[in-house]
Automatic annotation (TrEMBL):
Top EC category: hydrolase
Native organism: Paramagnetospirillum magnetotacticum MS-1
InterPro entries registered for this protein in UniProt: HisE (IPR008179), PRib-ATP_PPHydrolase-like (IPR021130)
Enzyme Commission designation: 3.6.1.31
Localization per record: Cytoplasm
Keyword tags: Amino-acid biosynthesis, ATP-binding, Cytoplasm, Histidine biosynthesis, Hydrolase, Nucleotide-binding
GO terms (BP aspect): L-histidine biosynthetic process
Classification via Pfam families: PRA-PH
Catalytic reactions of this protein: 1-(5-phospho-beta-D-ribosyl)-ATP + H2O = 1-(5-phospho-beta-D-ribosyl)-5'-AMP + diphosphate + H(+)
Protein name, UniProt field: Phosphoribosyl-ATP pyrophosphatase
NCBIfam families registered for this protein in UniProt: histidine_hisI, PRK00400.1-3, PRK00400.1-5
Known pathway: Amino-acid biosynthesis; L-histidine biosynthesis; L-histidine from 5-phospho-alpha-D-ribose 1-diphosphate: step 2/9
Gene: hisE
Length: 109
């Protein structure tokens, strides 16, 4: 079984492998076939469902909706050709920079 830290990478690999495959056999292939607008819409819907779970449902619902949101975000990245490593690198670049300091530096520009 995948190490937790690798699960997003492994899921991304599975998702990317579904490009151009039969939409009747794979939900991911169906999403790719429906296009970026639909993929982005699904991501947005799942994100809103995650917000609702956090505000008015239980932890189990929040976990489930979070997983749905992450899956759809990975499909969106794959459709746009963004590899997870790019996002990890951006997060790593931000390590050690307080969000408050970063916002102040933006306000001065
Ligand atoms: N993690 C997921 C995952 N999370 C959510 N979903 C699917 O996302 C769908 C969301 O359901 P909705 O009713 O919101 O969406 P919908 O049926 O498309 O409805 P519309 O809004 O489009 O009308 C469900 O069919 C879920 O099964 C996922 N489908 C696949 N995966 C992973 O992707 C892998 C590959 O899946 P396939 O591409 O289907 O082989 C799987 O092994 C899983 O690991």
């Amino acid at each position: 079984m995948a190490q937790d830290s690798n699960i997003l990478e492994e899921l991304y690999t599975v998702i990317a492998s579904r490009k151009g495959t039969d939409p009747d056999k794979s939900y991911t292939a169906k999403l790719f076939a429906r296009g970026r607008g639909k993929i982005a819409q699904k991501f947005g819907e799942e994100a809103v469902e995650t917000v609702v779970a956090a505000l008015s449902e239980g932890k189990d619902e929040l976990v489930g909706e979070s997983a749905d949101t992450l899956y759809h975000l990975l499909v969106l990245w794959a459709d746009c050709g963004v590899e997870p490593a790019k996002v990890w690198a951006e997060l790593a670049r931000r390590t050690g920079t307080s969000g408050i300091d970063e916002k102040k530096s933006r306000a001065k520009k």
